[in-house]
Amino acid sequence: MSWNLKKFDELTNTELYNLLKERTFVFVVEQNCPYLEVDGKDPFSYHLFKEDNGEIIAYLRILPAGVSYQEVSIGRVFVKKEYRGQGHAEELLSKGLEFIQKELNETAVKIQAQDYLRKFYGAFGFKPISETYLEDDIPHVDMLLQK
């Protein structure tokens, strides 16, 4: 298994295809949530993913400040269903936050988290900054990490 962190234009066609396929499966099919998953922000983002024999098993994208929010943001976080509960999510988020702090020199990270993941993100220091609200019929909460 290997980790990769790439800008959009560094992704191979196969990597991009696999990322979009897995994201669509998790966020549209698995969550039964029809929405435009390809939102135009990928070309401005960093893509962090873990592969196992060419299969993407964990992923998140890092959106620089000004793309979604005034702060840097993390989004589209997933671990493929059959790999969940094995520590990949914690490792994924740790690597993403390390890159943001050490390489981008950013101290604030804003996310739009599904409400049931409030405790998970809280363990990394994220604090809720909004009430729970519905986004595509799924309860969400805005959270902020400040170092």
How much beta, percentage-wise?
A: 25-35%
- Secondary structure: helix percent: 25-40%
**Mean of the pLDDT scores?**
95
Q: What's the helix count?
A: 3
Shape: globular
Low-pLDDT ranges: none
CATH architect. name: 3-Layer(aba) Sandwich
Run of helices and strands: EHEEEHEHEEE
Largest sheet, strands/sense/barrel: 8 strands, mixed
Number of domains: 1
Helix/strand/pairing class, anyone?
A: alpha+beta
- Separation of the first and last Cα atoms: 30 Å
Q: Indicate the CATH class.
A: Alpha Beta
In CATH, the homologous superfamily goes by the name Gcn5-related N-acetyltransferase (GNAT)
Keyword list:
Aminopeptidase, alpha+beta, GNAT_dom, single chain, transferase, 26% helix, Acyl_CoA_acyltransferase, 8-stranded mixed beta sheet, 147 residues
Question: Any overview of this molecule?
Answer:
- The protein is of the alpha+beta class and 147 residues long.
- It has one domain: Aminopeptidase (3-Layer(aba) Sandwich), CATH 3.40.630.30.
- 26% of the residues lie in helices and 35% in strands.
- It has 3 helices and 8 strands.
- Strands 1, 2, 3, 4, 5, 6, 7 and 8 form an 8-stranded mixed β-sheet that branches.
What are the SSEs and their pairings?
Blueprint: E1 2-7, H1 13-30, E2 46-52, E3 55-63, E4 72-79, H2 88-102, E5 108-114, H3 118-122, E6 127-128, E7 133-135, E8 138-146
Parallel strand pairs: 4-5
Antiparallel strand pairs: 1-2, 2-3, 3-4, 5-8, 6-8, 7-8
